[in-house]
Structure formats: structure tokens, C-alpha cells
């Protein structure tokens, strides 16, 4: 019996030293997917490899043994003894696997809850699998469904809404204080990875330009080139400060670079046009009392971290809603998966042709007008025997499990060829007349 | 009939205000759309009621307290809808629509029958003078709403405790922009309203200015907004200061409009509560 299997590790189960050894660089994915398919009982697979997780999802025709196959494959491909790996690897089968992929692509399993990259990474993994033809209709449906679940989670909950990194929090605050950024100027005092990142985010959010100053002027010039901004001498900070709407500071100065009086003076020159100071330095560069001045907002690194923490708490609350969506979608997908089993497929295949037979017989009989019982019988048995003969070989091959083809994939193919209704439990009448759906909208309720 | 129509609009404003309040709590877009639709329908019915009353009474119905309150509500809804169209500021509805409801519902509790017009009021100056002032007041009502929003938002940003308000309200910059925009529209309306009133007074009462309580309070209101406009243009007042002045200014308007009528009788007292 076919089963969806996921084997992998992530940031919670494995340290980076292990994760990096197991990662699949882009140029090896094709080779790896081929290797995976060659294994017995593995019908197609997808490999997801990011810096936080490596996961292999396959359709196993050998049930639980598929887990062992994938583990072997991972160890073999990377040349790592299986013993070193097994402590870090987790595996999911069937319903658990469905839930896991839905949660991963909805970013509910991410290190930073709700972070947006993972969905793109899962889509890439799916794209490679399509490119290297290692994905059959079942896994195809599975992944397409995972994308639509992720989209639902994104639009129906606020799990990814508020900023959870310092630089995004800075952008969010800047927008709330200053409004649209396109006419706003950023000033960078000092240098540092975090404040350069914040500046970059502000610029990509549309800020008009950037002034850069540094005690070492050469460093300022260098950064200005990198940011396509203007370098300003540190001694002239006072004269240029008035041009800046957003000031990001991170110098190594042991005392305040900007005192409250300095800020008071500059805000007066600016005729109260608001200023947003982001103080990333420890010890701080900007007198926190300047926050008391009207139209001046001073946030230090702790303030930003508090904002992020509040936002993370909100995400956690929203995650509960998202989990409910996942539960419902898992149930719907499992219903569809069940319908892909052999027996219900044979039943609906028979029913479909039987309807055709009945309709055609009725049409023929009514065209003949009054038919004597004998003719009637001949026509009916003719129709039945054609039907049985035609259906014999498809049903036989459904029941047979040969040439390493997964029966489930076969079932899906048969359902597609004969246009059998999807997610049909016991032949609900509306399911029989519903047009076939293209793409991912399986079993959404 | 037209009185009932005017009272029904209060219901539309109520449900519209509730829809906007629902929107601000749940951020459900459909509530905001519903609120706008209800206010729009309310305003159309209101205009119909106003026109009907004009034909019944034979004069522009903005003389009694019932009529004034009712017309103020109409003006506020119109100005709000215009601002929403321009700025897409749906949350503003949660602050302004309840005000329109309060005005129209208090009108609904007042005697609304048509009375003979005092001879002194029988003039084309009546609609000009009163409508200028009422639309000016409505614009300042929007500035008042934006001012409250500004103070709420500013407090969250200053204390650095971002809560529900932070997510829902627009940026400080936009709110301050509305303050200024309202001032540049409302102040000329207020000024023209006072000037036309003064000219009319010279015909009707024989003197441009008689220091009647309503005139005094109008002047106080005018000076408040003049100070704000002057401060904005010359020394760059903005933000918190401007928001507070917009709130104080609107309180002065409310007193000029209602307080003076009820507490300080004078030349403008053509009406009182008993009708």
C-alpha cells in the first residue's frame, strides 16, 4: 500500500554541523532525485534543503520500509554513517506526513514563526522535482495543496503580519511615524552590521537617500559608495543632521553623540518636522530623554527588541488559528487520498460506465419504438458484455501491482483518464455531476 | 413624513457607526464597506428629508435646534465621506460617525414640527450664513477625530508600548496632514460664515457686530483656529500641539453651537428646547 513518507531533520533536531553535511546544494538535487527514484518501492520524491532543514518526501509503496530506504539514501548520498544520523532524523508517515508538510509550508514549523521564505523554498523543491520528473500525481497534488494551505494561513491569520526582526521593526515604526518613506532621508552614524541592515531595509522600503558619517571619513566614503549615498564628515554632523528624517546610530562612543539640547535645536531648525532616532549603540549614542521632545522619537536596541517580542507573542496567538486551518485541510486531503485507493476507484469506474450503458440502452430502445422482449434482451446483453470486456483490462491492471508502478499512482492515472469524480466517498450524487477540478483545489470544503 | 425621514437617518448613522466600530476592532474590510454604504444611504435620505422640509416650511430648514442638529449631522457625514474618498481612512469613521449619530439622535428627541419663520430670518443670507458655518464645523469635526487619533497613536509611539491602536491607526504624518487640510478648508468657511453673518446683521439688526454671546464665542473659536493656522504656517506647529488645538477648537465650536443656545440667551436665540 502506498504511503506518503517524510524523513528529515531541522534546526531543532540537529545542530548546524550536521545540517550542513546533509544539505543538498542546488546542483546536486537532480542527481539526488534520480538516485532516490532508483530505490525499490520509492515512487517519486521531493527534496527540500534549506539552512534550517533538510527533508525528503517520497511516496513509498512499501509502507514503513520506505523510511529505511530514505535514511539509507541520505546516508549513502552524503557518505555519512547511518549511526551518526539516526539520532537527528525524524520521520512521518501518512496523516503525520501530510500535517508536517502543511505546517512547514505555512511556516508554523519555522525557527521564526511565520517567516515568509520557507514557502518559496518548498515551491523551489517542488519545482526541481517537476524538472527532474521525480514527482507523480499524488505528490503533485500533495504539494500543490500544501501551497494553498500556506496561502490560506497567510490570508486568514495574522501569523506573518508584524515585524519580528530589528530591521523590519525599524521600517514599520518609521512608516507609522513618518508616513510614506519616498521623500524621507536616512542618516547612518557609525557602522555596524545591524544598522547597515536596517538602513538597507529602509532604502528598499523606498527611502529617498542616505547620508553616512563616521569618525573615520574613509569608512564613511566606502559605505556611501556601497549604499549609493553621500558621505559626511563627522565634525559636520551638526550641520547635516537637519536633513535627516531617520537617524540610525551605532558608534563606539563612550558618551552621548547627540544630547537632548542638540536634538531640541535641530528639531527647531526643522520646524518640527518629525525625526526618528534608532540607537543601536551600547553604550547609547542618543540621549534617551530626547524622546520627550515633541515630534522626536528615540528608540534604542532594547525598545526595538521589546517591539519584536510583543509581535512574536501575537504571532504565537495567531498560530493557534493557523493550526486549526491545518487540521481541517489535513482531514480534507486525507479524504481525497483515501479515494485514490484501488477499491473505491474500481467501484466508481464501474459506476461511471454503467451509467453510460444504461443511458445508451435507453436511448436505443426508445429510438426503436416498441421492441419485443427478445430484442430488448439482446440489446441489453450486448451493452453489458461490451462494458465488461472493455473494463476488464483496466480493472485487472488496477488490481495488479506490477512494473514497480505504485498502485496509487496508477489509480490516480486511471481516475484522470476516465475523468472519475474526486473525493467521492460512497458515491454522493453531487460528486457524480461535478466537473473535474484542475489543479490544487482538492477537497477544500 | 419628512420628520420621520430625518429620524430614520439617525438609525442609518447608528448602524454605520457600529459597522465602523466593528471594523476597527476586527479589521474586517467588509464592515468598513458596509459602514460607508450605510452612511451614504443615510446621507441621501437625509438630503431628501431636508429638501422635503424645505418645501413644507417654505424656508431653508436650519433655524430651530432640531433642524440645526440634523443638518450638522448631515454635514459631518458628507465631509467624512469626502475625506474617506480622498484618504481611504476608514478608521476615521469609527471616530466621526458616532458624532454624526449623536447629533442626529439628539435632534430626533427634539420637537421637529415646522413653525413660522421669525421675520428677521426671512432672507437669502440665512442659508448662506448657516451652511458656511455648519460645513466649516463639520470639517473641524473631522480634524477633531483626527486629533484624537493622533494623540492615541503618539502615546503608543512615545511610551513604546505598541498595542491594538498601533496596528489600526494610520501614520502620525497622515493624521497631521488631515489636521492641516481641515484647517485650510474649515478656516475659510468659518471666516466667510462670520463675515456673511456680520453683513446680514447690518441689514437685519442694523449693526455689523453687537457682541451677542454667539458672536463672542464665534470670535473666540475663530481666534483659536487662527492661532493654530498661524502657528502652523509661521513657526511650524504640528503634531501633538496641532492635534490638541484641533480638539480644543472643536469644543469651542460645540459650545458656540449648543452651549450658547442653551445657556446664554442673546440676539441669536430664535429657538430654545421647548421649540
Task: Set out the fold topology.
The complex is a heterodimer of chains A (445) and B (275).
Chain A: E1 3-10, H1 16-22, H2 26-37, E2 42-49, E3 53-60, H3 65-78, H4 82-86, E4 90-93, H5 94-105, H6 117-131, H7 137-156, H8 166-178, E5 185-190, H9 193-204, E6 209-214, H10 217-227, E7 230-233, H11 237-240, E8 246-250, H12 260-269, E9 275-279, E10 296-300, H13 301-339, H14 342-368, H15 373-399, H16 407-417, H17 429-433
Parallel strand pairs in A: 5-6, 5-8, 6-7, 8-9, 9-10
Antiparallel strand pairs in A: 1-3, 1-4, 2-3
Chain B: H1 2-26, H2 29-57, H3 65-87, H4 92-108, H5 125-159, H6 164-168, H7 172-204, H8 213-235, H9 240-263
Helix pairs in contact in B: 1-2, 1-4, 2-3, 3-4, 3-5, 4-5, 5-7, 5-9, 7-8, 8-9
What does this structure look like?
The complex is a heterodimer of chains A (about 450) and B (about 280). By secondary structure, chain A is an alpha/beta fold. Chain A has three domains: about 5-155, Beta Polymerase, domain 2 (2-Layer Sandwich), CATH 3.30.460.30; about 165-310, NAD(P)-binding Rossmann-like Domain (Rossmann fold); about 340-435, no CATH class. Chain A is about 55% helix and about 15% strand. In chain A, the strands form two sheets. Chain A has a six-stranded parallel beta sheet with strand order 7-6-5-8-9-10. In chain A, helix 6 packs antiparallel against helix 7, helix 7 (about 135-155) crosses helix 13 (about 300-340) and helix 8 (about 165-180) packs across helix 9. Chain B is an all-alpha fold and about 280 residues long. Chain B is about 80% helix and about 0% strand. In chain B, helix 1 packs antiparallel against helix 2 (about 30-55) and helix 4 (about 90-110) crosses helix 5. Chain B is globular. Classes of the chains: A alpha/beta (about 450), B mainly alpha (about 280). The interface between A and B is medium-sized, with 23 and 20 residues.
Amino acid at each position: 500500500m502506498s504511503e506518503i513518507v517524510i524523513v528529515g531533520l531541522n534546526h531543532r533536531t540537529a545542530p548546524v554541523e550536521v545540517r550542513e553535511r546533509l544539505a543538498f546544494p542546488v546542483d546536486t538535487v537532480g542527481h539526488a532525485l534520480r538516485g532516490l527514484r532508483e530505490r525499490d518501492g520509492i515512487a517519486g520524491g521531493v527534496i527540500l534543503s534549506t539552512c534550517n532543514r533538510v527533508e525528503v518526501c517520497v511516496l513509498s509503496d512499501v509502507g514503513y520500509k520506505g523510511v529505511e530506504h530514505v535514511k539509507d539514501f541520505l546516508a549513502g548520498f552524503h557518505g555519512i554513517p547511518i549511526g551518526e544520523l539516526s539520532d537527528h532524523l525524524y520521520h512521518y508517515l501518512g496523516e503525520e506526513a501530510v500535517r508536517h508538510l502543511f505546517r512547514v509550508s505555512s511556516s508554523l514549523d519555522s525557527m521564526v514563526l511565520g517567516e515568509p521564505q520557507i514557502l518559496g523554498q518548498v515551491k523551489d523543491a517542488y519545482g526541481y522535482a517537476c524538472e527532474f520528473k521525480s514527482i507523480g500525481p499524488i505528490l503533485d497534488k500533495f504539494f500543490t495543496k500544501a501551497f494553498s494551505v500556506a496561502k490560506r494561513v497567510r490570508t486568514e491569520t495574522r501569523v506573518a503580519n508584524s515585524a519580528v526582526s530589528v530591521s523590519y521593526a525599524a521600517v514599520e515604526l518609521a512608516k507609522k511615524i513618518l508616513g510614506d518613506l519616498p521623500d524621507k532621508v536616512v542618516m547612518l552614524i557609525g557602522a555596524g552590521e545591524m544598522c547597515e541592515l536596517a538602513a538597507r531595509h529602509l532604502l528598499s522600503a523606498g527611502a529617498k537617500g542616505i547620508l553616512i558619517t563616521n569618525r573615520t571619513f574613509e569608512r564613511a566614503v566606502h559605505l556611501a559608495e556601497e549604499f549609493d549615498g553621500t558621505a559626511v564628515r563627522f565634525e559636520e554632523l551638526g550641520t547635516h543632521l537637519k536633513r535627516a528624517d531617520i537617524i540610525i546610530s551605532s558608534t563606539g562612543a563612550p558618551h552621548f553623540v547627540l544630547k537632548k539640547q542638540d536634538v531640541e535645536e535641530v528639531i527647531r531648525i526643522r520646524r518640527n518636522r518629525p525625526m526618528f532616532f534608532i540607537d543601536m549603540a551600547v553604550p547609547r549614542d542618543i540621549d534617551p530623554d530626547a524622546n520627550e521632545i515633541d515630534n522626536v522619537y528615540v528608540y534604542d536596541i532594547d525598545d526595538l527588541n521589546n517591539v519584536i517580542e510583543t509581535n512574536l507573542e501575537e504571532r504565537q496567538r495567531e498560530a493557534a488559528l493557523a493550526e486549526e486551518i491545518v487540521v481541517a485541510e489535513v482531514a480534507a486531503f486525507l479524504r481525497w487520498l483515501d479515494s485514490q485507493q484501488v477499491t473505491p476507484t474500481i467501484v466508481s469506474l464501474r459506476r461511471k460506465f454503467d451509467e453510460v450503458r444504461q443511458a445508451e440502452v435507453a436511448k436505443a430502445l426508445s429510438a426503436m419504438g416498441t421492441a419485443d422482449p427478445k430484442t430488448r434482451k439482446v440489446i441489453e446483453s450486448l451493452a453489458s458484455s461490451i462494458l465488461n470486456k472493455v473494463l476488464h483490462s483496466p480493472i485487472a491492471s488496477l488490481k495488479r501491482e506490477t512494473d514497480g508502478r505504485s498502485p496509487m499512482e496508477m489509480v490516480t492515472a486511471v481516475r484522470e483518464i476516465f475523468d472519475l469524480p474526486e473525493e467521492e466517498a460512497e458515491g454522493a450524487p453531487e460528486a457524480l455531476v461535478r466537473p473535474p477540478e484542475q489543479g490544487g483545489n482538492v477537497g477544500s470544503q | 413624513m419628512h420628520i420621520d425621514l430625518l429620524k430614520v437617518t439617525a438609525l442609518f448613522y447608528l448602524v454605520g457607526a457600529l459597522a465602523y466600530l466593528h471594523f476597527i476592532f476586527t479589521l474586517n474590510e467588509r464592515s468598513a464597506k458596509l459602514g460607508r454604504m450605510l452612511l451614504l444611504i443615510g446621507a441621501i435620505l437625509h438630503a431628501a428629508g431636508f429638501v422635503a422640509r424645505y418645501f413644507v416650511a417654505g424656508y431653508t430648514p436650519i433655524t430651530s435646534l432640531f433642524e440645526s442638529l440634523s443638518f450638522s449631522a448631515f454635514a459631518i457625514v458628507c465631509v467624512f465621506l469626502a475625506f474617506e474618498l480622498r484618504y481611504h481612512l476608514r478608521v476615521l469613521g469609527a471616530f466621526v460617525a458616532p458624532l454624526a449619530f449623536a447629533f442626529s439622535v439628539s435632534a430626533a428627541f427634539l420637537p421637529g414640527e415646522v413653525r413660522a419663520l421669525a421675520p428677521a430670518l426671512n432672507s437669502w443670507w440665512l442659508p448662506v450664513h448657516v451652511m458656511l458655518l455648519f460645513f466649516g464645523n463639520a470639517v473641524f469635526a473631522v480634524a477633531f477625530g483626527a486629533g484624537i487619533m493622533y494623540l492615541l497613536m503618539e502615546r503608543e509611539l512615545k511610551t513604546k508600548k505598541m498595542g491594538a491602536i498601533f496596528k489600526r491607526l494610520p501614520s502620525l504624518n497622515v493624521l497631521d496632514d488631515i489636521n492641516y487640510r481641515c484647517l485650510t478648508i474649515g478656516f475659510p468657511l468659518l471666516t466667510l460664515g462670520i463675515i456673511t453673518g456680520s453683513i446680514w446683521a447690518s441689514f437685519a439688526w442694523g449693526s455689523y457686530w453687537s457682541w451677542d454671546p454667539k458672536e463672542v464665542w464665534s470670535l473666540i473659536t475663530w481666534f483659536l483656529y487662527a492661532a493654530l493656522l498661524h502657528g502652523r504656517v509661521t513657526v511650524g506647529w504640528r503634531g501633538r500641539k496641532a492635534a490638541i488645538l484641533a480638539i480644543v477648537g472643536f469644543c469651542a465650536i460645540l459650545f458656540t453651537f449648543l452651549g450658547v443656545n442653551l445657556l446664554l440667551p442673546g440676539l441669536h436665540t430664535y429657538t430654545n428646547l421647548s421649540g
